Amino acid sequence: MLNNFQFIINTSVIAVLLFITTPTTAQQTWSSKYVQVKKDGSIVYAKDELGNSIPDFSGVGYQRNRKPLPVVPVVKTIDANADNDEQTIQSAIDEVTKMKMDANGFRGAILLKKGVYKIPGTIRIKTSGIVLRGEGEETKLIATGKGQRKLIVVTGAGELKETGGSRRKITDAYVPVGAKSFTVGNANGLKVGDSIVLYRPATKNWIEDIKMNEIEVRDSTTKQWSTAEYGLHYERVITKIENDKIYIDNPVVMAMEEKYGGGEIYLYSFAGRISNVGIENLLCESEYTSDEDEDHGWDAVFFNRVAGGWVTKVTAKHFGYSCVNLGYQARNITVSDCNYIQPKSKITGSRRYSFNNDGQLNLFMHCFASEGRHDFVNGAMVCGPNVFYNCKAENTKADIGPHHRWATGTLFDNIITDGELNIQDRGNWGTGHGWAGANMVVWNCTVGKAVIQNPWASAKNYVIGLKGTKYSGRLTGRPDAEWEGQNKDGLTPQSLYMTQLKAATK
Prior knowledge:
Among the domains are: 62-156 and 275-373, Single-stranded right-handed beta-helix, Pectin lyase-like (Pectate Lyase C-like, 3 Solenoid); 161-269, Beta Barrel (Thrombin, subunit H). The strands form six sheets. It has an 18-stranded parallel β-sheet that branches. The chain has a ten-stranded parallel β-sheet with strand order 6-9-20-22-25-28-31-35-38-40. The protein is globular. By secondary structure, the protein is mostly beta strands. The longest helix has 18 residues, at 4-21.
Protein backbone atom coordinates (compact mmCIF):
# COMPACT_ATOMS: atom_id res chain seq x y z
CA MET A 1 0.00 0.00 0.00
CA LEU A 2 1.42 3.40 -1.02
CA ASN A 3 1.35 6.15 1.56
CA ASN A 4 0.25 9.64 0.51
CA PHE A 5 3.74 10.87 -0.17
CA GLN A 6 4.64 7.86 -2.30
CA PHE A 7 1.45 8.32 -4.29
CA ILE A 8 2.26 11.97 -4.97
CA ILE A 9 5.81 11.18 -6.06
CA ASN A 10 4.86 8.21 -8.22
CA THR A 11 2.02 9.98 -9.99
CA SER A 12 4.22 13.02 -10.55
CA VAL A 13 6.87 10.89 -12.20
CA ILE A 14 4.26 9.07 -14.28
CA ALA A 15 2.85 12.40 -15.41
CA VAL A 16 6.29 13.59 -16.47
CA LEU A 17 6.98 10.34 -18.30
CA LEU A 18 3.68 10.58 -20.14
CA PHE A 19 4.49 14.16 -21.03
CA ILE A 20 7.77 13.02 -22.56
CA THR A 21 6.86 9.73 -24.19
CA THR A 22 3.26 10.06 -25.42
CA PRO A 23 3.20 10.75 -29.17
CA THR A 24 1.81 14.10 -30.19
CA THR A 25 -1.35 13.53 -32.21
CA ALA A 26 -3.59 16.59 -31.78
CA GLN A 27 -1.00 19.24 -32.46
CA GLN A 28 1.44 20.17 -35.17
CA THR A 29 5.01 19.11 -34.50
CA TRP A 30 8.12 21.13 -35.21
CA SER A 31 11.86 20.53 -35.15
CA SER A 32 14.74 22.69 -34.02
CA LYS A 33 16.92 24.31 -36.66
CA TYR A 34 19.89 23.27 -34.52
CA VAL A 35 19.11 19.53 -34.38
CA GLN A 36 17.65 17.44 -37.19
CA VAL A 37 16.87 13.73 -36.71
CA LYS A 38 16.99 11.67 -39.89
CA LYS A 39 14.71 8.73 -40.64
CA ASP A 40 17.42 6.24 -39.67
CA GLY A 41 17.75 7.88 -36.22
CA SER A 42 21.05 9.62 -36.93
CA ILE A 43 21.35 13.29 -35.98
CA VAL A 44 22.58 16.27 -37.97
CA TYR A 45 23.67 19.31 -35.96
CA ALA A 46 23.63 22.79 -37.45
CA LYS A 47 26.95 24.61 -37.12
CA ASP A 48 27.56 28.31 -36.71
CA GLU A 49 30.14 30.32 -38.64
CA LEU A 50 32.94 28.92 -36.41
CA GLY A 51 31.75 25.32 -36.54
CA ASN A 52 30.16 25.25 -33.06
CA SER A 53 27.09 23.07 -32.56
CA ILE A 54 24.98 21.58 -29.82
CA PRO A 55 27.15 18.78 -28.38
CA ASP A 56 26.36 15.09 -28.00
CA PHE A 57 25.35 14.43 -24.38
CA SER A 58 24.88 10.66 -24.75
CA GLY A 59 28.14 9.62 -23.04
CA VAL A 60 27.16 10.48 -19.46
CA GLY A 61 26.29 8.32 -16.48
CA TYR A 62 27.38 4.91 -15.23
CA GLN A 63 28.75 2.92 -18.18
CA ARG A 64 27.46 5.75 -20.38
CA ASN A 65 23.91 4.60 -19.53
CA ARG A 66 24.17 1.93 -22.21
CA LYS A 67 22.67 -0.80 -19.99
CA PRO A 68 20.36 -0.97 -16.95
CA LEU A 69 22.09 -0.59 -13.61
CA PRO A 70 23.55 -3.96 -12.53
CA VAL A 71 21.90 -6.10 -9.88
CA VAL A 72 24.83 -7.02 -7.65
CA PRO A 73 24.46 -10.23 -5.57
CA VAL A 74 24.03 -9.85 -1.80
CA VAL A 75 27.00 -11.05 0.25
CA LYS A 76 26.02 -9.61 3.65
CA THR A 77 22.62 -9.00 5.29
CA ILE A 78 21.97 -6.74 8.27
CA ASP A 79 18.99 -6.21 10.57
CA ALA A 80 18.39 -3.01 12.51
CA ASN A 81 18.82 -2.89 16.26
CA ALA A 82 17.10 -0.48 18.64
CA ASP A 83 19.90 1.99 19.36
CA ASN A 84 22.97 2.64 17.20
CA ASP A 85 23.49 0.89 13.86
CA GLU A 86 26.40 2.92 12.52
CA GLN A 87 29.13 0.56 13.65
CA THR A 88 27.19 -2.52 12.50
CA ILE A 89 26.85 -1.13 8.99
CA GLN A 90 30.41 0.15 8.91
CA SER A 91 31.79 -3.19 10.07
CA ALA A 92 29.85 -4.95 7.31
CA ILE A 93 31.30 -2.55 4.73
CA ASP A 94 34.79 -3.13 6.09
CA GLU A 95 34.24 -6.90 5.92
CA VAL A 96 33.10 -6.78 2.30
CA THR A 97 36.02 -4.46 1.50
CA LYS A 98 38.35 -7.43 2.17
CA MET A 99 36.54 -9.72 -0.29
CA LYS A 100 37.90 -10.31 -3.76
CA MET A 101 36.27 -8.60 -6.69
CA ASP A 102 34.48 -10.76 -9.24
CA ALA A 103 35.01 -10.61 -12.99
CA ASN A 104 32.59 -7.69 -13.25
CA GLY A 105 34.46 -5.57 -10.72
CA PHE A 106 32.14 -6.11 -7.73
CA ARG A 107 32.75 -7.45 -4.24
CA GLY A 108 29.04 -7.64 -3.47
CA ALA A 109 25.98 -5.91 -2.07
CA ILE A 110 25.18 -5.31 1.60
CA LEU A 111 21.44 -5.62 2.21
CA LEU A 112 19.84 -3.58 4.98
CA LYS A 113 16.58 -5.32 5.83
CA LYS A 114 13.40 -3.39 6.58
CA GLY A 115 13.72 -1.43 9.80
CA VAL A 116 14.94 1.80 11.39
CA TYR A 117 18.72 2.28 11.47
CA LYS A 118 20.00 5.05 13.74
CA ILE A 119 23.22 6.68 12.56
CA PRO A 120 24.83 9.28 14.87
CA GLY A 121 27.75 9.89 12.51
CA THR A 122 28.67 9.01 8.91
CA ILE A 123 28.77 5.72 6.97
CA ARG A 124 31.76 5.50 4.61
CA ILE A 125 32.53 3.40 1.54
CA LYS A 126 36.17 3.76 0.44
CA THR A 127 36.65 0.73 -1.80
CA SER A 128 35.53 -0.26 -5.30
CA GLY A 129 32.87 -2.86 -5.95
CA ILE A 130 30.50 -2.32 -2.98
CA VAL A 131 26.76 -1.67 -3.12
CA LEU A 132 24.70 -0.56 -0.10
CA ARG A 133 21.08 -1.61 -0.65
CA GLY A 134 17.87 -1.27 1.32
CA GLU A 135 14.39 -2.69 0.83
CA GLY A 136 12.76 0.57 -0.20
CA GLU A 137 11.24 3.20 2.07
CA GLU A 138 10.83 0.63 4.82
CA THR A 139 14.61 0.65 5.21
CA LYS A 140 15.03 3.94 7.03
CA LEU A 141 18.42 5.42 7.93
CA ILE A 142 18.09 8.23 10.47
CA ALA A 143 20.85 10.80 10.99
CA THR A 144 20.38 11.11 14.75
CA GLY A 145 21.42 13.87 17.13
CA LYS A 146 23.32 17.00 16.27
CA GLY A 147 26.12 17.76 13.84
CA GLN A 148 25.99 19.16 10.32
CA ARG A 149 27.29 16.19 8.33
CA LYS A 150 26.94 13.80 5.43
CA LEU A 151 25.05 10.60 6.21
CA ILE A 152 26.63 8.37 3.52
CA VAL A 153 30.02 9.18 2.00
CA VAL A 154 31.39 7.25 -0.97
CA THR A 155 34.89 8.40 -1.86
CA GLY A 156 38.28 7.16 -2.89
CA ALA A 157 41.57 8.88 -2.13
CA GLY A 158 44.24 11.02 -3.73
CA GLU A 159 44.15 13.43 -6.65
CA LEU A 160 44.26 13.34 -10.42
CA LYS A 161 47.98 13.34 -11.36
CA GLU A 162 49.39 14.54 -14.67
CA THR A 163 51.87 12.15 -16.28
CA GLY A 164 55.16 13.98 -16.56
CA GLY A 165 56.30 14.85 -20.07
CA SER A 166 52.97 13.89 -21.67
CA ARG A 167 51.56 17.36 -22.33
CA ARG A 168 50.96 18.27 -25.98
CA LYS A 169 49.73 21.46 -27.58
CA ILE A 170 46.61 21.43 -29.76
CA THR A 171 47.66 22.97 -33.07
CA ASP A 172 44.23 23.82 -34.49
CA ALA A 173 43.53 27.56 -34.38
CA TYR A 174 39.95 26.79 -33.32
CA VAL A 175 38.36 23.59 -32.00
CA PRO A 176 34.59 24.15 -31.90
CA VAL A 177 32.01 23.06 -29.37
CA GLY A 178 30.66 19.67 -30.41
CA ALA A 179 33.92 18.47 -31.98
CA LYS A 180 35.25 15.01 -31.13
CA SER A 181 38.65 15.42 -32.78
CA PHE A 182 41.57 17.82 -33.01
CA THR A 183 45.21 17.85 -34.03
CA VAL A 184 48.22 17.89 -31.71
CA GLY A 185 51.83 18.75 -32.44
CA ASN A 186 52.98 15.15 -31.98
CA ALA A 187 50.86 12.09 -31.21
CA ASN A 188 53.83 9.77 -30.66
CA GLY A 189 53.44 7.80 -27.43
CA LEU A 190 49.65 8.10 -27.37
CA LYS A 191 47.38 5.13 -28.03
CA VAL A 192 43.71 4.25 -28.28
CA GLY A 193 42.21 3.79 -24.82
CA ASP A 194 44.48 6.32 -23.12
CA SER A 195 42.81 8.52 -20.52
CA ILE A 196 43.64 12.14 -21.20
CA VAL A 197 42.73 15.55 -19.90
CA LEU A 198 41.67 18.14 -22.44
CA TYR A 199 42.88 21.42 -20.94
CA ARG A 200 41.42 24.81 -21.78
CA PRO A 201 43.42 27.65 -20.15
CA ALA A 202 42.13 30.94 -18.79
CA THR A 203 43.91 33.95 -20.22
CA LYS A 204 43.89 37.62 -19.29
CA ASN A 205 42.28 38.69 -22.58
CA TRP A 206 39.55 36.03 -22.23
CA ILE A 207 38.63 37.26 -18.76
CA GLU A 208 38.62 40.82 -20.08
CA ASP A 209 36.43 39.91 -23.07
CA ILE A 210 33.79 38.26 -20.86
CA LYS A 211 34.15 41.24 -18.46
CA MET A 212 34.84 39.18 -15.39
CA ASN A 213 37.54 41.64 -14.41
CA GLU A 214 34.80 44.27 -14.10
CA ILE A 215 32.47 42.70 -11.51
CA GLU A 216 30.88 45.48 -9.51
CA VAL A 217 32.37 45.44 -6.03
CA ARG A 218 29.72 44.78 -3.42
CA ASP A 219 31.95 44.37 -0.36
CA SER A 220 35.41 43.15 0.62
CA THR A 221 34.59 39.57 -0.43
CA THR A 222 33.97 40.38 -4.10
CA LYS A 223 36.65 38.75 -6.28
CA GLN A 224 37.48 39.46 -9.90
CA TRP A 225 38.26 36.34 -11.92
CA SER A 226 41.92 35.36 -12.30
CA THR A 227 43.87 33.33 -14.86
CA ALA A 228 45.22 31.01 -12.17
CA GLU A 229 41.75 29.81 -11.09
CA TYR A 230 39.74 29.38 -14.29
CA GLY A 231 41.54 26.75 -16.36
CA LEU A 232 39.23 23.85 -17.26
CA HIS A 233 40.27 20.17 -17.17
CA TYR A 234 38.01 17.77 -19.13
CA GLU A 235 38.51 14.02 -18.76
CA ARG A 236 38.35 12.13 -22.05
CA VAL A 237 39.43 8.81 -23.61
CA ILE A 238 41.21 8.49 -26.95
CA THR A 239 39.12 6.44 -29.41
CA LYS A 240 41.22 6.76 -32.59
CA ILE A 241 44.49 8.28 -33.80
CA GLU A 242 45.21 9.25 -37.41
CA ASN A 243 48.74 10.63 -37.72
CA ASP A 244 48.59 13.56 -35.25
CA LYS A 245 44.79 13.79 -35.21
CA ILE A 246 43.22 12.64 -31.95
CA TYR A 247 39.61 11.40 -31.64
CA ILE A 248 37.90 11.37 -28.24
CA ASP A 249 34.87 9.68 -26.69
CA ASN A 250 33.01 12.80 -25.55
CA PRO A 251 32.75 16.15 -27.28
CA VAL A 252 34.48 19.42 -26.69
CA VAL A 253 32.09 21.62 -24.68
CA MET A 254 34.28 24.71 -24.49
CA ALA A 255 35.91 25.94 -27.69
CA MET A 256 39.70 25.86 -27.83
CA GLU A 257 40.60 29.24 -29.31
CA GLU A 258 44.11 30.25 -30.32
CA LYS A 259 43.41 33.85 -29.33
CA TYR A 260 42.60 32.64 -25.79
CA GLY A 261 45.56 30.34 -25.39
CA GLY A 262 44.31 27.40 -27.46
CA GLY A 263 44.28 24.04 -25.70
CA GLU A 264 46.45 21.15 -24.57
CA ILE A 265 46.10 17.50 -23.68
CA TYR A 266 47.96 15.40 -21.15
CA LEU A 267 47.91 11.83 -19.86
CA TYR A 268 46.94 11.30 -16.24
CA SER A 269 46.52 8.74 -13.50
CA PHE A 270 44.21 8.64 -10.47
CA ALA A 271 45.37 5.71 -8.37
CA GLY A 272 43.04 6.23 -5.43
CA ARG A 273 39.80 6.74 -7.32
CA ILE A 274 37.23 3.98 -6.87
CA SER A 275 34.53 2.56 -9.15
CA ASN A 276 31.52 0.23 -9.34
CA VAL A 277 29.84 1.54 -6.19
CA GLY A 278 26.14 2.04 -5.62
CA ILE A 279 23.56 3.23 -3.08
CA GLU A 280 20.06 1.82 -3.57
CA ASN A 281 16.52 1.70 -2.20
CA LEU A 282 16.79 3.74 1.00
CA LEU A 283 14.81 6.32 2.94
CA CYS A 284 17.24 8.68 4.64
CA GLU A 285 15.93 11.03 7.33
CA SER A 286 17.56 13.60 9.55
CA GLU A 287 16.47 14.46 13.05
CA TYR A 288 15.93 18.19 13.64
CA THR A 289 14.61 20.52 16.33
CA SER A 290 12.90 23.26 14.28
CA ASP A 291 12.19 24.30 10.70
CA GLU A 292 15.33 26.47 10.71
CA ASP A 293 17.55 24.03 12.61
CA GLU A 294 20.95 23.70 10.92
CA ASP A 295 22.78 21.49 13.39
CA HIS A 296 21.77 18.16 11.85
CA GLY A 297 22.17 15.96 8.76
CA TRP A 298 23.19 18.01 5.72
CA ASP A 299 23.77 15.66 2.75
CA ALA A 300 22.08 12.27 2.49
CA VAL A 301 24.59 10.89 -0.06
CA PHE A 302 27.93 12.34 -1.15
CA PHE A 303 30.21 10.95 -3.90
CA ASN A 304 33.73 12.09 -4.75
CA ARG A 305 36.83 10.49 -6.25
CA VAL A 306 34.56 7.94 -7.93
CA ALA A 307 34.65 7.04 -11.64
CA GLY A 308 31.58 4.92 -12.29
CA GLY A 309 28.77 4.47 -9.78
CA TRP A 310 25.12 5.16 -9.05
CA VAL A 311 22.53 6.33 -6.55
CA THR A 312 19.03 5.07 -7.22
CA LYS A 313 15.67 5.11 -5.41
CA VAL A 314 16.91 7.12 -2.45
CA THR A 315 14.60 9.56 -0.67
CA ALA A 316 16.15 12.24 1.55
CA LYS A 317 13.89 13.87 4.12
CA HIS A 318 14.74 16.87 6.35
CA PHE A 319 18.36 17.23 5.15
CA GLY A 320 19.63 20.80 5.01
CA TYR A 321 21.67 20.62 1.80
CA SER A 322 21.05 17.73 -0.56
CA CYS A 323 19.72 14.31 -1.40
CA VAL A 324 22.74 13.64 -3.65
CA ASN A 325 25.86 15.78 -3.87
CA LEU A 326 28.54 14.89 -6.45
CA GLY A 327 32.00 16.35 -5.85
CA TYR A 328 34.46 17.73 -8.43
CA GLN A 329 36.20 14.37 -8.86
CA ALA A 330 33.03 12.32 -9.31
CA ARG A 331 32.67 11.10 -12.88
CA ASN A 332 30.21 8.89 -14.77
CA ILE A 333 27.69 8.69 -11.94
CA THR A 334 24.00 7.96 -12.54
CA VAL A 335 21.51 9.43 -10.06
CA SER A 336 18.02 8.13 -10.78
CA ASP A 337 14.55 8.04 -9.22
CA CYS A 338 15.59 9.96 -6.10
CA ASN A 339 13.60 12.46 -3.99
CA TYR A 340 14.51 15.44 -1.81
CA ILE A 341 11.63 16.49 0.46
CA GLN A 342 10.80 18.60 3.52
CA PRO A 343 14.29 20.10 4.04
CA LYS A 344 14.98 21.81 7.35
CA SER A 345 17.25 24.85 7.30
CA LYS A 346 17.17 28.58 6.90
CA ILE A 347 16.12 29.59 3.42
CA THR A 348 19.26 31.43 2.34
CA GLY A 349 22.58 30.87 0.57
CA SER A 350 24.50 27.57 0.74
CA ARG A 351 21.39 25.58 1.67
CA ARG A 352 18.98 23.25 -0.15
CA TYR A 353 20.94 22.27 -3.26
CA SER A 354 18.66 19.27 -3.77
CA PHE A 355 20.70 17.54 -6.49
CA ASN A 356 24.12 19.15 -6.81
CA ASN A 357 26.69 18.30 -9.46
CA ASP A 358 30.27 19.56 -9.38
CA GLY A 359 31.69 16.64 -11.38
CA GLN A 360 31.68 15.66 -15.04
CA LEU A 361 29.99 13.09 -17.28
CA ASN A 362 27.21 12.68 -14.71
CA LEU A 363 23.52 11.92 -15.29
CA PHE A 364 20.55 12.86 -13.09
CA MET A 365 17.21 11.47 -14.26
CA HIS A 366 13.68 10.95 -12.95
CA CYS A 367 14.37 12.90 -9.75
CA PHE A 368 11.99 15.01 -7.65
CA ALA A 369 12.54 17.91 -5.26
CA SER A 370 10.20 19.88 -3.02
CA GLU A 371 10.99 23.08 -1.08
CA GLY A 372 14.57 23.19 -2.35
CA ARG A 373 16.45 26.29 -3.42
CA HIS A 374 18.75 25.14 -6.23
CA ASP A 375 17.20 21.81 -7.12
CA PHE A 376 19.13 20.68 -10.22
CA VAL A 377 22.34 22.66 -10.08
CA ASN A 378 26.00 22.94 -11.06
CA GLY A 379 28.74 24.66 -9.09
CA ALA A 380 31.79 26.60 -10.31
CA MET A 381 33.87 25.60 -13.36
CA VAL A 382 32.00 22.31 -13.77
CA CYS A 383 33.30 20.45 -16.82
CA GLY A 384 30.69 18.86 -19.06
CA PRO A 385 29.01 17.12 -20.58
CA ASN A 386 26.47 16.56 -17.81
CA VAL A 387 22.71 15.92 -18.02
CA PHE A 388 19.62 16.60 -15.92
CA TYR A 389 16.79 14.71 -17.60
CA ASN A 390 13.09 14.28 -16.81
CA CYS A 391 13.17 15.84 -13.33
CA LYS A 392 10.60 17.88 -11.42
CA ALA A 393 10.73 20.52 -8.69
CA GLU A 394 7.87 21.95 -6.64
CA ASN A 395 7.56 24.79 -4.11
CA THR A 396 10.98 26.06 -5.16
CA LYS A 397 12.74 28.78 -3.17
CA ALA A 398 15.35 29.87 -5.76
CA ASP A 399 16.35 28.78 -9.29
CA ILE A 400 17.50 25.75 -11.27
CA GLY A 401 20.59 25.88 -13.48
CA PRO A 402 24.32 26.57 -13.29
CA HIS A 403 24.86 28.49 -10.08
CA HIS A 404 28.10 30.36 -10.62
CA ARG A 405 31.46 30.78 -12.38
CA TRP A 406 31.44 29.28 -15.86
CA ALA A 407 30.07 25.76 -15.64
CA THR A 408 30.18 24.31 -19.16
CA GLY A 409 28.21 21.84 -21.22
CA THR A 410 25.11 20.78 -19.26
CA LEU A 411 21.82 19.69 -20.81
CA PHE A 412 18.57 20.47 -18.96
CA ASP A 413 16.09 18.20 -20.74
CA ASN A 414 12.38 18.01 -19.85
CA ILE A 415 12.77 19.72 -16.50
CA ILE A 416 9.54 20.87 -14.87
CA THR A 417 9.57 23.52 -12.14
CA ASP A 418 7.12 26.00 -10.69
CA GLY A 419 10.09 28.30 -10.14
CA GLU A 420 12.89 29.65 -12.33
CA LEU A 421 15.50 28.13 -14.64
CA ASN A 422 18.29 30.67 -15.14
CA ILE A 423 21.60 30.85 -17.01
CA GLN A 424 22.92 34.36 -16.64
CA ASP A 425 25.52 36.83 -15.48
CA ARG A 426 24.98 36.74 -11.73
CA GLY A 427 27.34 39.65 -11.21
CA ASN A 428 28.52 40.23 -7.64
CA TRP A 429 26.24 37.72 -5.97
CA GLY A 430 28.22 35.53 -3.61
CA THR A 431 31.87 36.53 -3.90
CA GLY A 432 31.53 37.33 -7.60
CA HIS A 433 29.54 34.59 -9.31
CA GLY A 434 29.64 36.28 -12.71
CA TRP A 435 28.74 34.21 -15.77
CA ALA A 436 27.12 31.05 -14.42
CA GLY A 437 27.03 28.82 -17.48
CA ALA A 438 28.43 28.44 -20.98
CA ASN A 439 27.39 26.15 -23.84
CA MET A 440 24.35 24.99 -21.89
CA VAL A 441 21.27 23.52 -23.60
CA VAL A 442 17.73 23.87 -22.25
CA TRP A 443 15.43 21.49 -24.15
CA ASN A 444 11.63 21.19 -23.83
CA CYS A 445 11.47 22.43 -20.24
CA THR A 446 8.45 23.86 -18.42
CA VAL A 447 9.18 26.63 -15.93
CA GLY A 448 7.61 29.54 -14.09
CA LYS A 449 10.04 31.94 -15.70
CA ALA A 450 13.54 31.96 -17.15
CA VAL A 451 16.44 34.20 -18.06
CA ILE A 452 18.97 32.61 -20.38
CA GLN A 453 21.76 34.79 -21.72
CA ASN A 454 24.88 34.39 -23.84
CA PRO A 455 28.22 35.43 -22.37
CA TRP A 456 29.93 38.42 -23.95
CA ALA A 457 32.36 36.14 -25.79
CA SER A 458 33.54 32.55 -26.47
CA ALA A 459 30.31 30.63 -25.76
CA LYS A 460 26.57 30.35 -26.40
CA ASN A 461 23.57 28.96 -24.55
CA TYR A 462 20.59 27.35 -26.29
CA VAL A 463 16.97 27.33 -25.11
CA ILE A 464 14.66 25.31 -27.33
CA GLY A 465 10.96 24.68 -26.81
CA LEU A 466 10.80 26.23 -23.33
CA LYS A 467 7.34 26.80 -21.88
CA GLY A 468 7.26 29.69 -19.44
CA THR A 469 7.82 33.41 -19.09
CA LYS A 470 11.03 35.01 -20.31
CA TYR A 471 12.41 37.86 -18.20
CA SER A 472 15.46 40.13 -18.13
CA GLY A 473 17.31 38.61 -15.18
CA ARG A 474 19.68 39.97 -12.57
CA LEU A 475 21.57 42.32 -14.89
CA THR A 476 20.03 43.87 -17.99
CA GLY A 477 21.82 44.54 -21.26
CA ARG A 478 23.43 41.11 -21.51
CA PRO A 479 23.32 39.28 -24.87
CA ASP A 480 20.30 37.06 -25.35
CA ALA A 481 20.76 33.29 -25.66
CA GLU A 482 19.79 31.29 -28.75
CA TRP A 483 16.03 31.10 -28.15
CA GLU A 484 13.80 29.00 -30.38
CA GLY A 485 10.13 28.00 -30.11
CA GLN A 486 9.26 29.57 -26.75
CA ASN A 487 5.77 28.46 -25.61
CA LYS A 488 5.34 26.49 -28.82
CA ASP A 489 3.87 23.01 -28.44
CA GLY A 490 4.97 19.95 -30.39
CA LEU A 491 8.78 20.03 -30.25
CA THR A 492 10.22 16.87 -31.77
CA PRO A 493 12.19 15.04 -30.63
CA GLN A 494 10.64 15.56 -27.23
CA SER A 495 13.88 14.57 -25.48
CA LEU A 496 17.26 15.51 -26.92
CA TYR A 497 19.14 13.25 -24.49
CA MET A 498 17.08 10.14 -25.23
CA THR A 499 17.36 10.76 -28.96
CA GLN A 500 21.14 11.15 -28.72
CA LEU A 501 21.39 8.03 -26.56
CA LYS A 502 19.37 6.02 -29.05
CA ALA A 503 21.52 7.26 -31.93
CA ALA A 504 24.70 6.38 -30.04
CA THR A 505 23.58 2.80 -29.37
CA LYS A 506 22.36 1.92 -32.88
